[in-house]
Structures are given as C-alpha cells and as structure tokens.
C-alpha cells in the first residue's frame, strides 16, 4: 500500500468501548493492506475510560515508534483532546473525507480520530485511507504548525 507515512513502522491504534468494533474492523483492513498494527486497546466492548488508551497510543506515535496513529471513541472528541495534550501530537478529528484531507495537508496531523457513533464504517476506512495518502503541504502551513506547541 502506498502511503505518505513510513509503513515499515507499525500503525498505533487505540479506542474506548464505543470504538472497539470499528477498531477491530480497521485493524483487519490495515493488516490486509500489508500494515503492521500495534493495538493499545481496549480489547472488548466493556465500558472503559478513553484516556487509558489514548495516552499510550499518542506516546507511541510521539516517540517515533509508529508510522502514525488512529484513535476512536463515540464522538472522537475525548480521544482527540487527550492525544493533543502530548507535545508532538497533532490529532485531527475527522467526520468527512474533506476533513481528512485538510488535517494532513494543513495541520500535518499524525493521529486521525474517528467518531464511531457518527460515521459509517466504510466512511471511517475511506477517511483513514485518505489520511494515509495525503501529504503535508508545508509552506505557510508549516509556519502555523510550528506555532502550535506551548
């Protein structure tokens, strides 16, 4: 699979109970496309706290061990907020394909956050594929991205 990311590294993925079903389907899709997946849980649909899975996923991406990350929860807001607490993470919440393009082109996002309760699984996979194939534009956007960290 062609990607703008280094797919010799694993793709980090994590979710809460609301994202569990999508996470399992996305893992299967990634593996069928030749990707290595590092799964940070959760591992079933039992109610859990999303930060317990968003932090390890974000840390793995931030450390450079992952090509990029994927986080899922009901709205994707909780996992996005949590992941963006990490200094070198730019987690983008996507609900339509055009947003997946822009979080890569304009924000150089390194984690895609998907709202499992608000998008159909085929759209979630389409956004993921778009995210994986869209390069950061740099230029004026690099200047802005470089101003994000505190």
UniProtKB/TrEMBL annotation:
Gene3D superfamilies: Sugar-phosphate isomerase, RpiB/LacA/LacB
EC number: 5.3.1.6
Superkingdom: Bacteria
Protein name (record): Ribose 5-phosphate isomerase B
Gene giving rise to this polypeptide: rpiB
Family stated for the protein in its record: Belongs to the LacAB/RpiB family.
Record keywords: Isomerase
Pfam families the UniProt entry points to: LacAB_rpiB (PF02502)
Organism name: Limnovirga soli
GO BP term, pick one: D-allose catabolic process
Catalytic center residues: 73 (proton acceptor), 106 (proton donor)
GO molecular function annotation: ribose-5-phosphate isomerase activity
Residues that coordinate or bind D-ribulose 5-phosphate: 16-17, 74-78, 107, 117, 140, 144
SUPFAM superfamilies reported for this sequence: Ribose/Galactose isomerase RpiB/AlsB
């Amino acid at each position: 699979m062609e990607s703008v990311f280094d797919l010799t590294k694993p793709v980090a993925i994590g979710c809460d109970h609301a994202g569990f079903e999508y996470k399992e389907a996305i893992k299967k899709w990634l593996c069928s496309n030749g990707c290595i997946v590092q799964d940070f849980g959760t591992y079933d649909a039992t109610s859990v706290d999303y930060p317990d899975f968003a932090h390890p996923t974000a840390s793995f991406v931030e450390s450079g061990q992952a090509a990029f990350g994927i986080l899922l929860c009901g709205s994707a807001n909780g996992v996005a907020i949590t992941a963006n607490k990490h200094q070198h993470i730019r987690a983008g919440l996507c609900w339509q394909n055009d947003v997946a393009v822009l979080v890569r082109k304009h924000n150089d996002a390194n984690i895609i956050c998907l709202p499992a309760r608000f998008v159909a699984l085929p759209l979630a996979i389409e956004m993921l594929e778009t995210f994986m194939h869209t390069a950061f534009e740099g230029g004026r956007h690099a200047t802005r991205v470089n101003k994000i960290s505190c």
